[in-house]
Amino acid sequence: MQKNARTTVSVVMIVKDEEAVLAKSLESTTWADQVVVYDTGSTDATREIAARYSDTVVEGYWDDDFAGARNRAQAHATGDWILVLDADEVFLGDAKLLRKRLDRGPEDTFLLRVEGEDDGVVVPLTNHFSDTVITGVRIFRRGTRQWQGKLHEQPVQTGTSTGSALLHTCSIRHSGYTAEAVLAHDKGARNLRIAQRNLENVEASGTPAEIAAARVHVARSLVLADEPTEALRYAEQILPDLADRRQRWLLGFGMSAVAVNSGTEEQVRLWLTEWEQHDESPVFAQALRARYEMSRGNAEAALEQLEKIPSTTVTSQGQRLDRLDLAPVEVAALAKLGRRRPAQLLARRAVERDVAPGAPAILVECFTEEQLSGILAKASPRLWRELVQACVLGAHHAAVREFLGVMYRTRPGDVTVLSAASMLAPVIDLEDAAYWSAELRRHGAEEQCLLVVLAQDAERSARDRAVAAALAISAYGDERAVPALEDALALVAPEDEAALLAELDIVAPGLVGTNA
């Protein structure tokens, strides 16, 4: 019996001036039967890079119409299935498993999770948590869909669908809407221009529903163009005329994060309510509201929102929210209300599930060192590194530095903590500098001695520099501190000399008499 021909897949993308990211994207598609790269007018090396990976590189054109460009690109596809990818996206997954799932049917459309890089998303595409995730139609049988919409284009079914499903074995990593990428490509201004032009056209001849959708696109594009105040003003202006549930959800979803970051309390509550009332699953809106309330010190209101959220929620679009992921908010709220035992139990459970239990400064307040050390001892290597990084970022707070000390005493000699401690010189006091210097030296990191670094810091007071230098010389014989001591002593005001010399005689007896 003759075997069925293998299912073929065409990757289709539209690009322009993407030399910085295109190779990485195309590298993830080498398994595909065909890759169509439709270039809309690149002036860099985009087409040359594409030609190294694809035999179907099309020199196309751009007319401010995303759907038009995608349809022109799609016309060059020959595979049974089309996978839609952007130049700043990477396909993740097993191609063999993908083909098996496509063969199994009966669906003609599949959604993929699109994960955003966590480096400062400036447009609210997702659920406002640390890793941004959305889902969308990315794979469909060739001939079943055409694109519509000059901006925020969508693949629209052209006939009767045999069904759709979310693929769990594949995903896409997206970085196109990070702050750096938006600035580099001026995506905000481009999208706003297209949205405004589209609105003008639709208002002239479109239906009320089309006009409403176009107005929502303008509001969302104002966000991407870094005009939050105007976005909020315009969104409030168009809200009364929106009758469609989906449009109200899109607007509430999009404006909520903008209001939290840039709006008034009244605006925050307006848009969170719109989002929550019109979302099929309001848990993400409730989670953001809990974060907002806690940021304002409203612990009871934060807990009220958290208690509405089930242990696990998975939406029809495949988005998942585990309440335990909100442990930092809940631990802080419980602690603020004096409910320390529940806070401790929740923090312990979070760490056991590899979830950050809260901000270091909050955790120090919630637990005794013995309790905190017992919890931290269970942290995975990944979570341990995450907590150390949080300490580095918040090191200007004394409580955070105290937390780092607890981490070190939990795992003495830990290289990750010692590396973080070596960066504390700008904010550390002399007592802590002496402690960390001793530990760094004990583990072979003499070059990073904080006493020497502090002594050489021209931004520090002459007194601190002199005492740090004296300690480094007397305790460790570190000659690097001698010039720093001489420089510091020369800067001491005459009226302060006697007091400083007396202090130096205590920390390093006889040192100043022979080196000053």
UniProtKB/TrEMBL annotation:
Name by which UniProt lists this protein: Glycosyltransferase family 2 protein
Database matches in SUPFAM superfamilies: Nucleotide-diphospho-sugar transferases
Transmembrane segments: none
One Pfam family linked to the record: Glycos_transf_2
Start and end residues of each Glycosyltransferase 2-like domain: 10-122
Domain of life, source organism: Bacteria
